[in-house]
Amino acid sequence: MNQTKSSWNLKLLLSSSLVIGGMAIAPFDLTPNGFESSRVEAASTYTTTANLNLRLSAATWSPVLLTIPNGATVKYVSKYGSWYKVSYGGKTGYVASQYVKVSTPSTMTPSSASYYKTTVNLNLRLTAASWSSVLTTIPNGATVKYVSRYGSWYKVSYNGKTGYVASQYLTATGAPTTTTSTTSYQTTVNLNMRLTAASWSTVLLTIPNGATVKYVSKYGSWYKVSYGGKTGYVASQYLKPATTTTPTTSTGSGRTIVIDAGHGGNDPGAVYGSLYEKVIAFDIAARLASTLSNTYGYNARMTRSNDVYLSLAQRVELTKSYKGSAFVSIHNNSSTNTSYHGHEVLVPTGESYTTNPYISASRSLGAAINRELGVRIPTIRNRGVKYQNVYVVGKNSVPSTLVEYGFISNSNDRSHLTSTTYRQRMADATASGIHQFMSTYK
Ligand SMILES: [Zn+2]
């Protein structure tokens, strides 16, 4: 996991990298409070969300006319792909449109802007990147629910799935006429969830009596529902509408979990051949964030949503600014001794970070995750919970742990770490451990 200590000023780093790169990818959502305007419809003025280069033409290599300060109001002239032609300070030029937002919030109706219609068959992806796994392809003309914005990507929900789509293929629309998509149901018996809508179909899992499931769609007398990280079909006669009082203590209740994909950018972490720890960690982290929000109702935030470098201090800072309730850092191990193998969880020792009041809670969090990993992935050795002085778990002011999912240098572990099935299982085990901890932690 290779830690380095650095105390860069987050704001300085962020704004300067944007100015230098012009199109630099933001390491996290620049408008975390949910920018819900219909930005596809041209407004007359926009506000910059970063120090932003005004360029001669619509290209990152084009000469910079001037740098517009963060928060400034610019006049919109026209659109050019992902660039806007704007006027500011007596000059007219081009800016990257993902760093501006509509500056007249009073005229917007958030409810109408929170739904978009696709203008092509559009891939819903796991993360905000064109190389990211495709969760599903949304048909042209379908209505999606807007969740948040990540640069030129929108996080949206469609048909029970949440992921990222390229925002240029969306157009604002009203709320859909069918209102059932977010409904929850409660089971009235121990109920089999099946692969398809038929009583002879494979059982994916048995949902306990009284559990709350998320409704996805209807199929004759069967409902497609999500539960425990799985989606499948149940006989609808054994469901009743969920009562509103049940979920408050047992679900995420919208509490924020900060997921930290280790390394990134010019720091690859452990390397084995063409395998980079930063890439594997990011994929597990993205799956974990998705399970935490879709299955358990947490507000999952990632410290980095792309392949960028963040210092350890920045990761701790982000936990604070996201108002996280817990922090989990995702890593892989490596050793020159290729026989070393297994997963382990690192928690604070209590010696180096004596002012941290969350040491005991961090250990409980780590133990819960370790237990779930051990039970759900028995084919990787369980090395247990280790007390270690790690910056991100010692310095964070919330319960924090660092998970090493296995050794990239060991062939057995590597076969798991390179399998998307096992990455998902690692993510689901971790989510379950986090949820077990959070259910007892107030
Ligand atoms: Zn690492």
Give your account of this protein's structure:
With 442 residues, this protein is of the alpha+beta class. It has 4 domains: 10-107, Roll (SH3 type barrels); 115-173, Roll (SH3 type barrels), CATH 2.30.30; 184-241, SH3 Domains (SH3 type barrels, Roll); 250-440, 3-Layer(aba) Sandwich (Aminopeptidase). Helices cover 22% and strands 34% of the residues. It is built from 9 helices and 29 strands. The strands form 8 sheets. The protein has a 6-stranded mixed sheet with strand order 25-22-26-29-27-28, sandwiched between helices. Helix 4 crosses helix 9. The longest helix has 21 residues, at 420-440. The radius of gyration is 23 Å and the shape is globular. Zinc ion binds at residues 1-2, 262-263, 269, 277, 331.
Q: What would a concise description of this structure say?
A:
Helices cover 22% and strands 34% of the residues. By secondary structure, it is an alpha+beta fold. The strands form eight sheets. Strands 25-22-26-29-27-28 form a six-stranded mixed sheet, with helices on both faces. A five-stranded antiparallel sheet has the order 6-5-4-1-7, with no helix packed on it.
